[in-house]
Amino acid sequence: LKDYTKKHEDIDLVISTIELENMTIPHIVVSPLLEPGDEKKLSAFMRQLDESHSQKQKNFQMLNNTTPFLVFLQQEAEHRYKLIEQLATALFEKGYVEKEYAVHAVMREKMAATNIGAGIAIPHANAKYIKQSAIAIATLKEPLDWGSEKVSLVFMLAVKHEDQTMTKQLFSELSYLSEQPAFVQKLTKETNVMTFL
What we know:
Elements: H1 2-7, E1 14-16, E2 27-29, H2 36-57, H3 61-64, E3 71-75, H4 80-93, H5 101-111, E4 115-117, E5 120-121, E6 134-146, E7 149-158, H6 164-178, H7 181-189, H8 193-196
Parallel strand pairs: 1-2, 3-6, 5-7
Antiparallel strand pairs: 4-5, 6-7
């Protein structure tokens, strides 16, 4: 078990039928027959885990770096470049980036598509065109062709070089999202900006 948990750092919890010594991962001991009492105990344990998990997520970097004015839900773009221009223009109009940011984001996209799997894309441009870090977000009414896959959730990342720790945190949040297809689907169906955030 020790070796296994060292190799797999993404374990959420351990359910065991014997007591475990020095276990740092959340764990619970149940009877090998998983009796009704155990099921109740397990449900309560899972609920507790979920709550502490959502407490952690209140500190999403993503939320600290966007505003309702940078969120565009249920968009009907006919091409990804159009959507990239739209998001970059919003960032420019709110004073986060230079006017050239849009052109460079499209050029960057033409070199290689920025889809990261799970229907998510993260278009961006060179940090030198960014005045202040911000994230513009769009969801698509119908998934849009984005390189090798269809995308329905787009985060335009405008992150300054100085904010490297933020970048690191953002990427771990994005990777968390990309592993939650049901959650991504829920986000893309949302029509209310505040509920979405």
